[in-house]
């Protein structure tokens, strides 16, 4: 087998060397096979489909509200499959636009107080395709001011617009952002790209202040709310809704795969912007539409989350209870105002080892977050308590961490 690899295309050898280097740097990621129990979330089964091991309590799910296991949401998916089939059957331009797509786009636009919305196959694609398309418009020449901790999907979209310039400002640093805006040519088209909740540290942007700077320097604002939709605001419209500044943001992007528990991404904005993206964004035009079996439960989930504020209240009650238990046990964690609870480890190998032992010895799953996702020396376990984590589950996690740290 080795001889075959050595005599094959040089890319095979390149991959071997790259994988060895990734392993040596402690960045090699191995998947843990977990099967969610819809009736007992956040309990999962570990193992393959043929042989399940003992149950595992998961502490790192992005289904923050557990909407993906809500009976009404699941039934919407089941009924859609029975009535419309398993797939979409085409792109949105080729027989793939269903009335459910239209209804969900209208629902999301209304959620964020915008004129229109556009669905994408994922949150990553919605960022990449939208930003790249916008920044390639008007013959290029855009200057993007991008937060230092923006998600890879935003970075990919910005870099994909070859004729635009990207200026990175210090994370959540309004002074640095204004200095960079002021130094840019006044005539250049500008866009500020940032997030509301940053998923690794759990900190939150001052959206209103950023929008004020955008107005002062005539910049477009592009806000990623993927870790906030469903969770913040009276109806789950995100931090911009919570802070009553959604109307000041030009473009709000979100996901259906986290707080809403299903799948897909979207952008909302004025009708002209959405129509331009619909007709110009290749990441939208040339891909098969989300199937009705996904859109139907997403629509049901958004509608439920908008109506039922108790879900958000329960989430943050659980988060605050867990933080209190960690503090009382002397376990180091980042105190933030968001729903994300990073337990700080500070070493990549130790972080992976603690995560491994939590799973093997205590049947607790907590994702290790290492470099390059976070800076070296800030490695952590990223914990996301949800409304279904009981006090007993929290006590088990706290005791396990106490014994391992």
From TrEMBL:
Residues 55-401 form the Aminotransferase class I/classII large domain. Pathway: Porphyrin-containing compound metabolism; protoporphyrin-IX biosynthesis; 5-aminolevulinate from glycine: step 1/1. It catalyses: succinyl-CoA + glycine + H(+) = 5-aminolevulinate + CO2 + CoA. InterPro entries: 4pyrrol_synth_NH2levulA_synth (IPR010961), Aminotrans_II_pyridoxalP_BS (IPR001917), Aminotransferase_I/II_large (IPR004839), AON_synthase_class-II (IPR050087), PyrdxlP-dep_Trfase (IPR015424), PyrdxlP-dep_Trfase_major (IPR015421), PyrdxlP-dep_Trfase_small (IPR015422). GO terms for biological process: protoporphyrinogen IX biosynthetic process. It comes from Commensalibacter intestini. Its EC number is 2.3.1.37. This is 5-aminolevulinate synthase. PROSITE patterns: AA_TRANSFER_CLASS_2 (PS00599). Belongs to the class-II pyridoxal-phosphate-dependent aminotransferase family.
């Amino acid at each position: 087998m080795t001889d075959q690899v050595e005599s094959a295309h040089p890319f095979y050898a390149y991959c071997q060397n790259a994988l060895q280097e990734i392993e040596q740097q402690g960045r090699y990621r191995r998947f843990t096979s977990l099967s969610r129990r819809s009736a007992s979330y956040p309990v999962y089964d570990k193992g393959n489909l043929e042989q399940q091991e003992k149950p595992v309590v998961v502490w790192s799910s992005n289904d923050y509200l557990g909407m993906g296991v809500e009976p009404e949401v699941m039934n919407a998916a089941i009924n859609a499959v029975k009535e419309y089939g398993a797939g979409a059957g085409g792109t949105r331009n080729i027989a793939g636009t269903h009335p459910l797509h239209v209804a969900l786009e209208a629902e999301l636009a209304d959620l964020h107080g915008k004129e229109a919305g556009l669905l994408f196959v994922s949150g990553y694609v919605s960022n990449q395709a939208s930003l790249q398309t916008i920044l390639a418009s008007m013959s290029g020449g855009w200057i993007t001011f991008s937060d230092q901790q923006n998600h890879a999907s935003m970075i990919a979209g910005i870099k994909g617009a070859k004729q635009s310039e990207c200026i990175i400002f210090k994370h959540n640093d309004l002074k640095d952002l204004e200095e960079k805006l002021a130094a840019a040519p006044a005539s250049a088209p500008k866009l500020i790209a940032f997030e509301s909740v940053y998923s690794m540290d759990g900190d939150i942007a001052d959206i209103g202040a950023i929008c004020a700077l955008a107005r002062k320097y005539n910049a477009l604002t592009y806000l990623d709310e993927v870790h906030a939709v469903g969770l913040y605001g009276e109806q789950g419209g995100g931090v911009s809704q919570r802070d009553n500044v959604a109307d000041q943001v030009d473009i709000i992007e979100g996901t259906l795969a986290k707080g809403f528990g299903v799948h897909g991404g979207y952008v909302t904005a004025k009708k002209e912007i959405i129509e331009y993206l619909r007709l110009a964004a290749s990441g939208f035009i040339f891909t098969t539409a989300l199937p009705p079996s996904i859109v139907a439960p997403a629509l049901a989930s958004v509608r439920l989350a908008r109506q039922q504020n108790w879900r958000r209240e329960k989430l943050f009650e659980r988060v605050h209870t867990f933080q209190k238990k960690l503090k009382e046990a002397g376990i180091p964690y980042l105190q933030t105002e968001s729903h994300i609870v990073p337990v700080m480890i500070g070493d990549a190998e130790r972080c992976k080892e603690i995560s491994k032992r939590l799973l093997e010895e205590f049947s607790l799953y907590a994702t290790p977050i290492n470099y390059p996702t976070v800076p070296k020396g800030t490695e952590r376990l990223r914990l996301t308590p949800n409304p279904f984590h009981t006090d007993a589950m929290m006590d088990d996690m706290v005791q396990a961490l106490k014994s391992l740290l």
